[in-house]
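Fill in residues.
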Protein backbone atom coordinates (compact mmCIF):
# COMPACT_ATOMS: atom_id res chain seq x y z
CA UNK A 1 0.00 0.00 0.00
CA UNK A 2 1.29 3.43 -0.96
CA UNK A 3 0.09 6.68 0.66
CA UNK A 4 -0.11 10.00 -1.16
CA UNK A 5 2.51 11.46 1.19
CA UNK A 6 5.05 8.90 -0.08
CA UNK A 7 4.84 6.38 2.79
CA UNK A 8 4.77 2.72 1.76
CA UNK A 9 3.56 -0.38 3.62
CA UNK A 10 4.22 -3.87 2.28
CA UNK A 11 2.46 -7.06 3.30
CA UNK A 12 0.77 -10.22 2.07
CA UNK A 13 -2.19 -9.71 -0.21
CA UNK A 14 -5.51 -11.51 0.13
CA UNK A 15 -9.01 -11.12 -1.21
CA UNK A 16 -9.31 -9.82 -4.77
CA UNK A 17 -6.28 -9.31 -7.00
CA UNK A 18 -6.88 -5.71 -7.98
CA UNK A 19 -5.86 -2.11 -7.27
CA UNK A 20 -7.96 0.52 -5.51
CA UNK A 21 -7.55 4.10 -4.35
CA UNK A 22 -9.35 5.40 -1.28
CA UNK A 23 -9.10 7.39 1.93
CA UNK A 24 -7.08 5.41 4.48
CA UNK A 25 -8.65 5.37 7.96
CA UNK A 26 -8.38 3.29 11.12
CA UNK A 27 -10.82 1.92 13.66
CA UNK A 28 -9.97 0.90 17.22
CA UNK A 29 -12.81 -1.60 17.55
CA UNK A 30 -11.81 -4.99 18.94
CA UNK A 31 -14.92 -6.90 17.81
CA UNK A 32 -17.65 -6.72 15.20
CA UNK A 33 -15.60 -6.69 12.00
CA UNK A 34 -18.48 -8.13 9.88
CA UNK A 35 -20.66 -5.17 10.93
CA UNK A 36 -17.85 -2.67 10.33
CA UNK A 37 -17.01 -4.05 6.88
CA UNK A 38 -20.67 -3.68 5.84
CA UNK A 39 -21.24 -0.26 7.43
CA UNK A 40 -22.08 2.17 4.58
CA UNK A 41 -20.22 4.94 6.44
CA UNK A 42 -16.98 3.23 5.34
CA UNK A 43 -17.87 3.52 1.64
CA UNK A 44 -14.88 4.74 -0.38
CA UNK A 45 -12.36 4.05 2.40
CA UNK A 46 -9.47 1.66 2.93
CA UNK A 47 -10.07 0.45 6.47
CA UNK A 48 -7.31 -0.42 8.93
CA UNK A 49 -8.10 -2.44 12.06
CA UNK A 50 -5.85 -1.59 15.00
CA UNK A 51 -6.84 -4.86 16.71
CA UNK A 52 -4.14 -7.30 15.58
CA UNK A 53 -6.23 -10.44 14.91
CA UNK A 54 -9.06 -10.32 12.38
CA UNK A 55 -11.04 -13.27 11.06
CA UNK A 56 -11.07 -15.48 14.16
CA UNK A 57 -14.85 -15.99 14.05
CA UNK A 58 -15.12 -15.97 10.28
CA UNK A 59 -18.05 -14.54 8.36
CA UNK A 60 -21.65 -15.24 9.39
CA UNK A 61 -24.41 -15.92 6.90
CA UNK A 62 -24.71 -12.94 4.56
CA UNK A 63 -28.18 -14.05 3.42
CA UNK A 64 -29.80 -14.43 6.88
CA UNK A 65 -32.64 -11.97 7.52
CA UNK A 66 -34.53 -10.94 10.65
CA UNK A 67 -38.31 -10.80 11.04
CA UNK A 68 -38.43 -7.51 9.09
CA UNK A 69 -36.29 -8.72 6.21
CA UNK A 70 -33.19 -6.79 7.31
CA UNK A 71 -29.71 -8.40 7.36
CA UNK A 72 -29.48 -10.33 10.64
CA UNK A 73 -25.73 -10.19 11.20
CA UNK A 74 -24.56 -7.34 8.93
CA UNK A 75 -25.28 -3.62 8.55
CA UNK A 76 -26.01 -3.79 4.82
CA UNK A 77 -26.27 -6.42 2.12
CA UNK A 78 -22.69 -6.05 0.84
CA UNK A 79 -19.13 -5.14 1.72
CA UNK A 80 -18.82 -1.35 1.80
CA UNK A 81 -15.08 -0.85 2.30
CA UNK A 82 -12.83 -0.24 -0.71
CA UNK A 83 -9.88 -2.11 0.81
CA UNK A 84 -8.78 -3.77 4.08
CA UNK A 85 -5.53 -3.56 6.06
CA UNK A 86 -4.82 -5.92 8.99
CA UNK A 87 -1.91 -7.06 11.09
CA UNK A 88 -2.89 -10.71 11.24
CA UNK A 89 -5.55 -12.75 9.46
CA UNK A 90 -6.54 -15.84 11.42
CA UNK A 91 -8.34 -19.12 10.78
CA UNK A 92 -11.98 -18.92 11.92
CA UNK A 93 -13.39 -21.05 14.70
CA UNK A 94 -17.05 -20.24 15.35
CA UNK A 95 -20.28 -22.17 14.93
CA UNK A 96 -21.89 -19.36 12.95
CA UNK A 97 -19.02 -18.97 10.49
CA UNK A 98 -19.88 -19.73 6.87
CA UNK A 99 -16.61 -18.71 5.22
CA UNK A 100 -13.31 -16.90 5.75
CA UNK A 101 -12.82 -13.15 5.50
CA UNK A 102 -10.42 -13.53 2.57
CA UNK A 103 -13.03 -15.55 0.65
CA UNK A 104 -15.65 -12.87 1.33
CA UNK A 105 -13.35 -10.14 0.02
CA UNK A 106 -12.40 -12.12 -3.07
CA UNK A 107 -16.05 -12.77 -3.97
CA UNK A 108 -16.78 -9.06 -3.50
CA UNK A 109 -13.77 -7.87 -5.56
CA UNK A 110 -12.22 -6.10 -2.56
CA UNK A 111 -8.44 -6.33 -1.95
CA UNK A 112 -6.83 -6.78 1.43
CA UNK A 113 -3.32 -6.79 2.84
CA UNK A 114 -2.05 -8.59 5.97
CA UNK A 115 1.24 -8.51 7.85
CA UNK A 116 1.25 -4.70 8.00
CA UNK A 117 2.53 -2.92 11.10
CA UNK A 118 -0.85 -1.37 11.81
CA UNK A 119 0.50 0.39 14.93
CA UNK A 120 2.94 2.32 12.77
CA UNK A 121 0.25 3.07 10.19
CA UNK A 122 -2.18 4.26 12.87
CA UNK A 123 0.42 6.49 14.50
CA UNK A 124 1.24 7.92 11.08
CA UNK A 125 -2.42 8.74 10.40
CA UNK A 126 -2.84 10.26 13.86
CA UNK A 127 0.19 12.48 13.32
CA UNK A 128 -0.37 13.44 9.68
CA UNK A 129 -4.14 13.02 9.34
CA UNK A 130 -6.07 10.74 7.00
CA UNK A 131 -4.67 10.57 3.49
CA UNK A 132 -5.56 8.81 0.29
CA UNK A 133 -3.74 5.63 -0.53
CA UNK A 134 -3.40 3.03 -3.28
CA UNK A 135 -3.76 -0.61 -2.29
CA UNK A 136 -2.54 -3.17 -4.80
CA UNK A 137 -2.83 -6.96 -4.62
CA UNK A 138 -1.30 -8.95 -7.49
CA UNK A 139 1.65 -10.91 -8.78
CA UNK A 140 3.64 -7.82 -9.77
CA UNK A 141 3.72 -4.69 -7.64
CA UNK A 142 3.55 -1.35 -9.48
CA UNK A 143 6.28 1.19 -8.81
CA UNK A 144 5.80 3.93 -6.25
CA UNK A 145 5.64 6.40 -9.13
CA UNK A 146 2.81 4.48 -10.78
CA UNK A 147 0.85 4.21 -7.52
CA UNK A 148 1.35 7.93 -6.88
CA UNK A 149 0.01 8.64 -10.38
CA UNK A 150 -3.11 6.56 -9.70
CA UNK A 151 -3.76 8.48 -6.50
CA UNK A 152 -3.39 11.84 -8.27
CA UNK A 153 -5.86 10.80 -10.97
CA UNK A 154 -8.47 9.48 -8.53
CA UNK A 155 -11.13 11.84 -7.15
CA UNK A 156 -10.76 13.13 -3.60
CA UNK A 157 -12.87 11.42 -0.93
CA UNK A 158 -15.04 14.51 -0.45
CA UNK A 159 -15.71 14.78 -4.20
CA UNK A 160 -17.13 11.28 -4.70
CA UNK A 161 -20.84 10.59 -4.90
CA UNK A 162 -21.69 7.67 -2.63
CA UNK A 163 -25.46 8.00 -2.39
CA UNK A 164 -26.11 6.03 -5.60
CA UNK A 165 -24.46 3.05 -3.88
CA UNK A 166 -25.70 3.30 -0.27
CA UNK A 167 -29.23 4.75 -0.44
CA UNK A 168 -32.36 2.85 -1.47
CA UNK A 169 -33.62 3.71 -4.93
CA UNK A 170 -37.30 3.65 -3.98
CA UNK A 171 -39.23 3.78 -0.70
CA UNK A 172 -39.45 0.62 1.41
CA UNK A 173 -41.68 -0.11 4.39
CA UNK A 174 -41.01 -2.35 7.40
CA UNK A 175 -42.98 -3.24 10.52
CA UNK A 176 -46.57 -3.67 11.62
CA UNK A 177 -49.10 -1.78 9.46
CA UNK A 178 -50.97 -0.49 12.52
CA UNK A 179 -47.89 0.95 14.28
CA UNK A 180 -47.05 4.69 14.25
CA UNK A 181 -45.13 5.52 11.05
CA UNK A 182 -41.59 6.91 11.18
CA UNK A 183 -39.78 8.15 8.06
CA UNK A 184 -36.07 7.36 7.76
CA UNK A 185 -33.95 9.39 5.38
CA UNK A 186 -31.52 6.82 3.99
CA UNK A 187 -28.09 8.33 3.38
CA UNK A 188 -26.51 4.94 4.05
CA UNK A 189 -28.38 4.02 7.20
CA UNK A 190 -27.26 0.91 9.09
CA UNK A 191 -29.67 -2.00 9.48
CA UNK A 192 -29.24 -1.71 13.25
CA UNK A 193 -30.66 1.83 13.27
CA UNK A 194 -33.74 0.67 11.38
CA UNK A 195 -34.04 -2.25 13.80
CA UNK A 196 -33.74 0.04 16.83
CA UNK A 197 -36.71 2.06 15.57
CA UNK A 198 -38.73 -1.07 14.77
CA UNK A 199 -37.94 -2.59 18.17
CA UNK A 200 -39.64 0.39 19.82
CA UNK A 201 -42.95 -0.42 18.21
CA UNK A 202 -42.87 1.75 15.09
CA UNK A 203 -43.40 1.13 11.40
CA UNK A 204 -40.54 2.43 9.22
CA UNK A 205 -40.80 4.20 5.87
CA UNK A 206 -37.29 4.11 4.38
CA UNK A 207 -36.83 6.91 1.86
CA UNK A 208 -34.12 7.66 -0.72
CA UNK A 209 -31.71 10.27 0.59
CA UNK A 210 -33.08 13.08 -1.58
CA UNK A 211 -36.79 12.17 -1.47
CA UNK A 212 -39.31 14.53 0.17
CA UNK A 213 -40.72 13.41 3.50
CA UNK A 214 -44.47 12.94 2.92
CA UNK A 215 -47.12 13.97 5.39
CA UNK A 216 -48.89 10.65 4.84
CA UNK A 217 -48.01 7.28 3.36
CA UNK A 218 -50.44 4.54 2.44
CA UNK A 219 -53.19 6.31 4.34
CA UNK A 220 -51.19 6.79 7.54
CA UNK A 221 -49.66 9.99 8.91
CA UNK A 222 -45.86 10.23 9.25
CA UNK A 223 -45.20 10.82 12.96
CA UNK A 224 -41.43 11.47 13.02
CA UNK A 225 -38.19 11.59 11.04
CA UNK A 226 -34.89 9.77 11.60
CA UNK A 227 -31.78 10.83 9.67
CA UNK A 228 -29.11 8.18 9.94
CA UNK A 229 -25.47 7.64 9.18
CA UNK A 230 -23.68 7.54 5.84
CA UNK A 231 -20.43 8.32 4.01
CA UNK A 232 -18.88 11.41 2.49
CA UNK A 233 -18.87 15.15 3.00
CA UNK A 234 -22.24 16.20 4.48
CA UNK A 235 -22.18 19.56 2.67
CA UNK A 236 -22.56 17.74 -0.68
CA UNK A 237 -26.06 16.52 0.22
CA UNK A 238 -27.82 19.79 -0.56
CA UNK A 239 -31.14 18.16 -1.45
CA UNK A 240 -31.27 16.22 1.80
CA UNK A 241 -30.27 19.33 3.78
CA UNK A 242 -33.09 21.36 2.22
CA UNK A 243 -35.67 18.69 3.09
CA UNK A 244 -34.38 18.37 6.66
CA UNK A 245 -34.60 22.15 7.02
CA UNK A 246 -38.25 22.06 5.99
CA UNK A 247 -39.13 19.21 8.34
CA UNK A 248 -37.13 20.62 11.26
CA UNK A 249 -39.27 23.77 11.16
CA UNK A 250 -42.48 21.75 11.44
CA UNK A 251 -43.81 20.05 14.57
CA UNK A 252 -42.46 16.64 13.56
CA UNK A 253 -39.99 15.05 16.04
CA UNK A 254 -36.58 14.59 14.41
CA UNK A 255 -33.67 12.34 15.42
CA UNK A 256 -30.24 12.61 13.77
CA UNK A 257 -27.49 10.01 14.17
CA UNK A 258 -23.88 10.43 13.01
CA UNK A 259 -24.10 11.99 9.52
CA UNK A 260 -27.70 12.83 10.45
CA UNK A 261 -26.45 15.07 13.26
CA UNK A 262 -24.23 16.94 10.81
CA UNK A 263 -27.05 17.31 8.27
CA UNK A 264 -29.38 18.66 10.97
CA UNK A 265 -26.82 21.29 11.92
CA UNK A 266 -26.32 22.28 8.28
CA UNK A 267 -30.07 22.46 7.76
CA UNK A 268 -30.33 25.02 10.56
CA UNK A 269 -27.46 27.19 9.33
CA UNK A 270 -24.57 25.50 11.11
CA UNK A 271 -21.23 24.43 9.64
CA UNK A 272 -19.25 21.21 9.55
CA UNK A 273 -15.52 20.54 9.25
CA UNK A 274 -13.32 17.54 8.54
CA UNK A 275 -11.57 15.99 11.53
CA UNK A 276 -7.85 15.29 11.32
CA UNK A 277 -8.26 11.52 11.54
CA UNK A 278 -11.87 11.02 12.65
CA UNK A 279 -13.52 9.03 15.43
CA UNK A 280 -13.82 5.36 14.54
CA UNK A 281 -14.16 2.70 17.21
CA UNK A 282 -16.36 1.34 19.96
CA UNK A 283 -14.82 2.98 23.02
CA UNK A 284 -15.56 6.69 22.51
CA UNK A 285 -16.61 8.71 25.55
CA UNK A 286 -19.54 11.11 25.36
CA UNK A 287 -20.37 13.50 28.22
CA UNK A 288 -23.91 14.85 28.70
CA UNK A 289 -24.94 18.07 30.52
CA UNK A 290 -26.47 16.14 33.44
CA UNK A 291 -23.04 14.76 34.34
CA UNK A 292 -23.42 11.34 32.78
CA UNK A 293 -20.57 9.93 30.70
CA UNK A 294 -21.23 7.06 28.31
CA UNK A 295 -19.20 4.89 25.99
CA UNK A 296 -20.51 4.80 22.43
CA UNK A 297 -19.57 3.39 19.06
CA UNK A 298 -18.54 6.00 16.49
CA UNK A 299 -17.63 6.15 12.83
CA UNK A 300 -17.31 9.65 11.43
CA UNK A 301 -14.74 11.88 9.78
CA UNK A 302 -16.67 15.18 10.00
CA UNK A 303 -18.02 17.15 12.94
CA UNK A 304 -20.19 20.19 13.68
CA UNK A 305 -18.60 23.50 14.60
CA UNK A 306 -20.12 24.57 17.97
CA UNK A 307 -19.71 28.29 17.21
CA UNK A 308 -21.81 27.93 14.07
CA UNK A 309 -24.93 27.04 16.08
CA UNK A 310 -25.58 30.60 17.26
CA UNK A 311 -29.02 31.62 16.01
CA UNK A 312 -29.78 28.12 14.69
CA UNK A 313 -32.22 27.18 17.42
CA UNK A 314 -30.00 24.21 18.28
CA UNK A 315 -28.02 23.77 21.48
CA UNK A 316 -24.91 21.70 22.22
CA UNK A 317 -26.03 18.56 24.06
CA UNK A 318 -22.96 16.33 24.40
CA UNK A 319 -19.19 16.58 23.97
CA UNK A 320 -16.19 14.33 23.53
CA UNK A 321 -13.87 14.91 26.51
CA UNK A 322 -10.79 13.84 24.57
CA UNK A 323 -10.82 16.61 21.96
CA UNK A 324 -13.86 18.74 22.81
CA UNK A 325 -15.74 17.69 19.66
CA UNK A 326 -19.45 18.39 19.70
CA UNK A 327 -21.23 15.04 20.05
CA UNK A 328 -24.89 15.93 20.42
CA UNK A 329 -27.47 18.60 19.51
CA UNK A 330 -31.01 19.40 20.63
CA UNK A 331 -33.54 22.19 20.54
CA UNK A 332 -35.00 23.76 23.68
CA UNK A 333 -38.24 21.77 23.48
CA UNK A 334 -36.57 18.40 22.91
CA UNK A 335 -38.37 17.91 19.60
CA UNK A 336 -35.02 17.72 17.78
CA UNK A 337 -32.32 15.38 19.07
CA UNK A 338 -29.03 14.41 17.46
CA UNK A 339 -26.10 12.27 18.55
CA UNK A 340 -22.83 12.05 16.66
CA UNK A 341 -22.16 8.56 18.01
CA UNK A 342 -24.23 5.43 17.45
CA UNK A 343 -26.76 4.75 20.22
CA UNK A 344 -27.70 1.47 18.55
CA UNK A 345 -24.14 0.09 18.91
CA UNK A 346 -23.70 -2.98 16.67
CA UNK A 347 -20.82 -3.30 17.02
CA UNK A 348 -20.26 -1.64 20.34
CA UNK A 349 -22.03 -0.66 23.55
CA UNK A 350 -25.67 0.40 23.66
CA UNK A 351 -25.46 2.65 26.73
CA UNK A 352 -26.82 5.61 24.77
CA UNK A 353 -29.91 3.73 23.60
CA UNK A 354 -31.98 6.12 25.72
CA UNK A 355 -31.70 8.55 22.78
CA UNK A 356 -34.04 6.31 20.80
CA UNK A 357 -36.33 6.08 23.84
CA UNK A 358 -36.54 9.88 24.14
CA UNK A 359 -37.37 10.17 20.47
CA UNK A 360 -40.00 7.43 20.77
CA UNK A 361 -41.62 9.13 23.78
CA UNK A 362 -41.74 12.42 21.91
CA UNK A 363 -43.41 10.78 18.90
CA UNK A 364 -46.02 9.05 21.02
CA UNK A 365 -46.86 12.20 22.98
CA UNK A 366 -47.30 14.14 19.75
CA UNK A 367 -49.47 11.47 18.10
CA UNK A 368 -51.97 11.27 20.98
Amino acid sequence: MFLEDGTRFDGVGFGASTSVVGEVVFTTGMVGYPESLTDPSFRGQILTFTYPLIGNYGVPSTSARDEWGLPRFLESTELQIRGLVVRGLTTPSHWQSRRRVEEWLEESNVPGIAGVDTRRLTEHLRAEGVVRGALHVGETAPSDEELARRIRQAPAYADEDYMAHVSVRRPAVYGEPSAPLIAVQDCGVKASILRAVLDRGFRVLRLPYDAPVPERWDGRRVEGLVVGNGPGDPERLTGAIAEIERVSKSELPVLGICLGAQLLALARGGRTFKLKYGHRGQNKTVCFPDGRAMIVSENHGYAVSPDSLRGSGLLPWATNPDDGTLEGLRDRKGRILALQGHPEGHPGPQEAGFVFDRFADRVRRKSR
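The chain has nine helices and 20 strands.
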